[in-house]
Amino acid sequence: MLYHLTPPLGAKGPQYRRYHLPGIHAQYMAQPPLNQPTTDPQAQPQPYPTQPPGNPRFHAQTPMQPPPPGARRILVADCPILVWMLSLNREYTKQEYDACYKVVQTCVEHDTVKYEPSSADSFRNLITLMLPLLMMRHRRIPRAKWKDCITPTGKHWIEQAQDDMTPERFMQSMIGYHLTYEASLCAMAMCQGTQRRVINIGIGTKQVAVEPRGAAVQTYVESQSHLLTALELESITTEKEDETMLRRLSIIIALKKAYIKAIGQPIGFDFSRLEFNIPERKAIGDGHPLQGWEFRIWRVTLGVARRDQLINETYECACAFFRGSQESRFVFYEHQQQLNTWVQFINIDQMLKVIPKLTA
């Protein structure tokens, strides 16, 4: 039996949610900052929060603040970013679902997935949870030689067994990662370095399509206006071409998803607290510049088999990572050749082929 991945109209789930919430839920309390020394050997140590400057762990009553005067920024230029993207390019079978479910039950202790073989959303979740296993297998590190760790705010990092590594090398061997999935695309962003640095990474995607299908683009943009600031909405609606309007909306939403996940915020975060001024390459949170961030933006087009049809799906993707530079940096990747050095594309069959090796 084949199970279809295309969601029905009105489908529920995190990737279809409209985030129509007035603000952050009160139970998500701000985390107290920890002190971290500067990496500049000639500078005097200064108290510095682990979370990026200007972005404390948000609370409903706590606005974002700029970094304190004289604070030293920690430059994180030595943490290369890698992204894995998996295309759900065809339907799946119950046998394939069962194989993925068994791997996750065995190797992913931190997550509990309800057994629902007929749920496409459950299959997306399972195969996305397998991406860190594939990444570590690609590095030829056995499953028994690493553990998946998690912060109180849900940020993941992988800690390898120290074995013969020197203390310095061991400290630099931590791998921070973030997972996401939407429709036919599953993704993981990761980087390697010290734990305090690598956890500040997030990835966001937004399919370039209206919901519900067949809706007018202008109507769809208006339905998403609660996620946008007045400036963002103006930058989208001043363009009269539907395709460009939809792409601009998707880029902004993907950037906001990536950023709020990089700082460890819940799904109910009020997107309108953030503003991405794409033409001027500026990012603002609660009226303050978001400094020290690197934002990467790229587009993915997938060929997907659905029943007896082959369709194309386009996604705008964004990755956010805190590097501690003076200003935030936006990098747009317009061509496939530019992605080849840091984005890895795979499909369902390639993942299923290595399942016997993932638990080794």
Please give a handful of descriptors for the protein shown.
single chain; 360 residues; alpha+beta; Ribosomal Protein L22, Chain A; 6-stranded mixed β-sheet; 4-stranded mixed β-sheet; 26% strand; P-Pant_transferase_sf; transferase; 4-PPantetheinyl_Trfase_dom_sf; EC 2.7.8.7; holo-[acyl-carrier-protein] synthase
Describe the structure.
By secondary structure, this protein is an alpha+beta fold. It has one domain: 4'-phosphopantetheinyl transferase domain (Ribosomal Protein L22, Chain A), CATH 3.90.470. Helix content is 25%, strand content 26%. It is built from eleven helices and 15 strands. It has a six-stranded mixed β-sheet with strand order 4-5-6-7-2-15. A four-stranded mixed β-sheet has the order 8-13-12-14. A hairpin with a 4-residue loop joins strand 9 (274-277) and strand 10. Helix 1 packs across helix 2 and helix 7 runs antiparallel to helix 8. The protein is globular and about 55 Å long. The two termini are 29 Å apart. Residues 6-67 have low confidence and may be disordered.
Highest CATH level, the class: Alpha Beta
Helix-strand topology string: EEEHHHEEHEEHEHHHEEEEEEHEHH
Rounded mean pLDDT score: 82
Spatially, the strands of the biggest sheet line up as 4-5-6-7-2-15
Helix content estimate = 25-40%
Per CATH, the superfamily is 4'-phosphopantetheinyl transferase domain
- Which structural category fits the helices and strands? alpha+beta
Strand content: 25-35%
Distance between the termini: 29 Å
Overall spatial form: globular
CATH architecture descriptor text: Alpha-Beta Complex
Structural domains: how many:
1
E-strand count: 15
The residue ranges in which pLDDT falls below 50 over 5 or more consecutive positions are: 6-67
